[in-house]
Amino acid sequence: MRGALVLASASPRRQELLRACGFELIVAPADLDESPLPGETPRALVARLAAAKAATIGAGVAADAIVVAADTAVVVDGHDLGKPRDDEDARRMLRTLSGRPHDVLTGYCVRRGATSLVDVVSTEVTFRVLADNDIDAWLSLGQHKDKAGAYAIQGAAAALIKTVRGSLTNVVGLPVDEVLAAIAALRTETP
Prior knowledge:
Layout: E1 3-7, H1 12-20, E2 23-27, H2 42-58, E3 66-76, E4 79-80, H3 87-97, E5 101-112, E6 115-127, H4 132-141, E7 161-165, H5 168-172, H6 176-187
Helix pairs in contact: 3-4
């Protein structure tokens, strides 16, 4: 095992990714207002939210503890789609994504004491052209609920995807390669 990390997220996908890397996790989700600030870009939003989550949880842990936080957005034409409010909103999102590329942005923050490493990773995902019956079938599975852009790439949503350019784990919710590098960098610093 690589040791314990504090994960400032309730996301089962982020937990699975970090556990697969050999970490023991202390799960401590941060409860924040995730509304964008006026004029804030999706890239700035995910970076700000990841840093805020790590700072909120980091304030309550030992100085040598490593906290990992992240926030993900699905972005089309510069606009964050957010999470669907209901099935009709999810249907609208999937129609928007049909047959075209979009960016999945994950802001992450790895924090130890007063030191934070924050960055944003972008992955381009292109959906295949979706017919209404494809969308209906996807919605009937219920896997769109509480998911940015109304989908999660793991599982059945893989059938919606034509191409992925960049980090697949980023689309799942945590750019593992970059987060592991940040963890290693902070572990070498004296708290």
